[in-house]
Description:
There is one protein chain. By secondary structure, the protein is of the alpha/beta class. The protein has a single domain, classed as Thiamin diphosphate (ThDP)-binding fold, Pyr/PP domains (Rossmann fold, 3-Layer(aba) Sandwich), CATH 3.40.50. The protein has ten helices and nine strands. The strands form two sheets. The chain has a seven-stranded mixed sheet with strand order 2-1-3-4-8-7-9, with helices on both faces. Thiamine diphosphate binds near residues 70, 71, 140 and 143. Thiamine diphosphate binds near residues 70, 114, 142, 144 and 146.
Amino acid sequence: xxxxxxxxxxxxxxxxxxxEVVYQRPHxxxxxxxxxCPGCQHGQVHLCIAEAIDELEIKDRMIGMAPxxxxxxxxxxxxxxxxxxxxxxxxxxxTGIKRAxxxxxxxxxxxxxxxxSIGAAEIVxxxxxxxxxxxxxxxNAIYGMTGGQMAPTSLEGMVTSTSxxxxxxxxxxxxxHVVEMLSxxxxxxxxxxxxxxxxKGLIKTKKAIKKxxxxxxxxxxxxxxxxxxxxxxxxxxxxxDSAAWVGEEMNKVFQVGVFxxxxxxx
Length: 266
Ligand SMILES: Cc1ncc(C[n+]2csc(CCOP(=O)(O)OP(=O)(O)O)c2C)c(N)n1
């Protein structure tokens, strides 16, 4: 933390007696500034996760898996232990942690390059085995950290640094719909897709993540929440335009909603 930020913080008055605190940093986040780019929603999704953990009072039981990608630094921001996993292998590491310590609540936080490309086998088998873990899957339709290459989730015709003429589905196939695919597996207890581009979407994202943790606490099986996000820098958009693009274009291709809920299945 830079001295300048600490000095600014010191000037912020603490709540006075008689004043009610209506909003504060969740206890599950450290007092560390996010380093994500403008227009990136990793920070907002971190906040959703932290608030859900605080509400469930499970911070002391949490163990997180940090992916390879922009959000590898998740371990800086959350106030509980994290393991930094090799690219795409977070579900395999999470499996080992949960089996060794069944009382732990295990979070695997992964991007779309990480989960749907190099880690496609790990996620399918962890889901199929019904591992008692919760995956938060950030779908920003691109490889963010390495410069905006095409991901398995890039939209049809989408221009990326490795598809300058747009994603050609005759060569690269159509975007992978991860939660729809995983929801066909019997080990999956809960699979939902939400969007992080607007406040309404973030409220639903937090609700979905909380439900996923609750299902894990009840030992119902594998849980996953896919969150549609933007990567303003690599799609060469302003933060505002990037959010609008997620709301319009990504939400058209990737329907939000619940794809599997074991409790609704009678
Ligand atoms: C085995 C291996 N292959 C490739 C890389 C390079 N690499 C680092 S981050 C990344 C892309 C991550 O993209 P995504 O999972 O979508 O996350 P984002 O950065 O968009 O949040 C890649 C390919 C690596 N670190 N390790």
